[in-house]
Input
Amino acid sequence: NDKDDGVRYLLHDFHKDLLAKSYINREKKYVIDPSNSPVIEFLYPVFPYQKNKMLAGRLYYIKDKINTNQELVAKEGEFLTAASSLFRWVKRKFKTKPISGYDGYLVSERSYDWLTKNKGELVLNNA
Output
């Protein structure tokens, strides 16, 4: 399926052997388990979404994983340092436009322009 689902996982090359994944037989593909992998989840809006609605994107990572003893433990220190560094960089460098009612959210200039031009709605709960 070539449809863009708006989800990508970011990781360092040296972490690829630590990926937790499983095979989905009905879909004939492997999927990444972000809960137990050293990955940053990048959800991005796919334009346009349901006429005048756009799903909010996000950059997200999980700091803990379940080890072989079924205990919750911190993910690898190198991963946590790199993820934290990326988040600080994004907050400093990402060009945003403030939107009333969305305080605390980073809304890109492109998204702001689309929302304004199309009298669109930003949907924060995209679950």
User: Anything to note?
Assistant: Residues 21 and 32 are 4 Å apart (CA to CA). Strands lie at 7-10, 21-24, 29-32, 40-43, 53-55, 58-60, 64-66, 72-74, 121-123. Residues 77-93 form the longest helix (17 residues).
